[in-house]
Each structure stands twice: as C-alpha cells, then as structure tokens.
# Entry
Amino acid sequence: MLRKTNKWYCVLIILLLFGTAVYVPAAYGASCTTQSQMSASQREALSGAARTMLIQLQNGDVQALQANTVPAVAADFSGIATSVQNLKPLVQKATLTIDNLYILDASTEAAGTSRIDFFCGEPVVALNFSDIPPGTYALAIGHATGVPQPQQISLVLSKGAQDKWMFAGLFSKPMVLVGHDGLWYWTSARKYATQNMNWDAWFYYRIATYLVNPIDLLSSSNLEKIQHETDKVKPANVPGSSPVALSAGGATYSVTAIDTTSTFGALDLDVHYQPDPTQASQLRDPPTARKQVVDVMSALLEQYPELRQAFHGIWVHADQGAMSLFALELPMDGIDGHSVNLQPAAH
# Structure
C-alpha cells in the first residue's frame, strides 16, 4: 500500500528476515523481557546503546554506525548506508526518544530453527523472527518528532562479546501521512464503514495499519482489531492477484492495481491499468491519451462516488510491462473538467 510513499521509508534488514506474527501459546516462544521487567542496569545499557545508534542515524554517521555493527551486516553495509542518508534530512533536527525496549533471548534455541516467536508483556505483544542464529537480541522502538515529517525508528540489536549491544538492522516509518496519524485514519475508516462507504473505509484502514505498526514483525491486540475491521469492509472487486475489468467510454480497461499515494502532497488514489494494443496505440497522441485516462477516472467515480469524499484526486498510470506509457493526476473537481498535471511518462 501507499505506493510512492512507503518504499523509501522502509529500511532493509540484511541480517534478519522477518515473518508475520501469529498468536500461539507463550510456552512455545523464546523468552522476552519488556522494559518494565528489565533490571535498571539492563535498561540503562540497552537504552544507552540504542540512543547512541539513533544519534548516529540522525547525524548520518554511517562510519560510526558500521563500526558497531554485527559482522554479517557490516560486511555488506551499502543498503543501510543509503537508507541512513535518506533518513538524515528527515530527522536531523528532530527530538529523539526511545519509547519501547524488548530483550529477546533466543540463546537456547537450536541452530537452524526456522521460526522463533517471542511473547512480550501483558497485553501480549508478539514478535516473530525467521532464520536467526541462537543468541540474544533486542528491539528498540524510537520516535523522531518536532519535525515536518516525524518518524518512528525501530532498531534491532544483537548482544556481542562482553555483553556489548551491536547494531543489526533497522526499520523506519512515518508517524503521519498528509498531516494525520494512524489513530485519525482508524477513526475515519470506522466512520466510513458505518456509512457503508467500504472503498473509503478499506483504504483508510490500510493506512491506519501502516502508521500504527512501527515494524512489520510485531503483532498486538490492537493490530488484530484493525485487521479484523479491515477484512469486514474489503470490497470484493479490488484488483489483487488478477486484474479487474472497468468499462469506460465504450471500452473495457484491465485495472491491475488501486492503491494510495501522497506524491503530490495530498492523499490521492493511485490507479494502474494495462492497455490493450489498440488502447496503447492511442496513448501516443497526448489529447487522446488524456481522454483515455480521464475516462478511466470518471468510470471509477461513477461506480464508486464515495471516493470523491475521501481523496484529493486520482493518479492514473497506463502501464506496459514495467514501463508507464502515460500518467495523469487530477483533483476530484477537475476530473470532469480541465487537466491540472499532465505527465507523459519518460521512456
């Protein structure tokens, strides 16, 4: 989801491959120590190490961060280095806080265990790791606030020699999207659901889930509640594994994806369709191309007029394989009128 917005916020973890957390009885998981359960010395050591790493991220100090990184990650640090540099301008002047700490003890797990579950605190927060070697790990969830684009930053740490905490990976996500946080989108999604505006509700629930979950390996009762509410309103004809046919202007278009984007600053729908050969040839002529994509927009709004209420506009892409033949963004009040942002795609 959130096409065009989330792909540069999420940072690859090289050492750890995470799965989806699922609740099972706690006896089957390795042990987890929450922040409140830690001794003062444990808490101070972990929070101090995490804060140092956050400051290094804030300053874009890749060299210092890499120097205290576990060898498997430090050996190929280019992806994380790029991510740190992308994150730096967003958080350079931010106030940093560390809000949640977890120590994850998998030291007694057998080597080669494909999945290790950790169940933390009450109410339970579940964390799931896949394919990690036996050892002791930690998760530190922090926030960078007081800046135009506040971020939530999750650090993964690994305990090395002499009980020293070392950097193992990170995720970052925005705390807000288009000026609103996850709770606002969750509340708005519920309002749309009560009005049977399921398309609006479904997209807003997905944004809410993205914003309130700091890291995808985590699950909680609140996240399960959002997921349950999301599943209840999901429209039957949203494109997924297969395209959806949309009749527009006397033609039928194969819609391959509908998502959301804030590329132009406001919250838009992001629609992709695959033109057939005749439609593709029409895209070579800009006026005809504009009419074609506006027909797609108009047909979508004719079928689902509720979309006008929840979104600023629609951005439509005519795709051929991995290449976009033509792209057009219009605000809702311009779809039946004049073009605002005409963008023939670069080849």
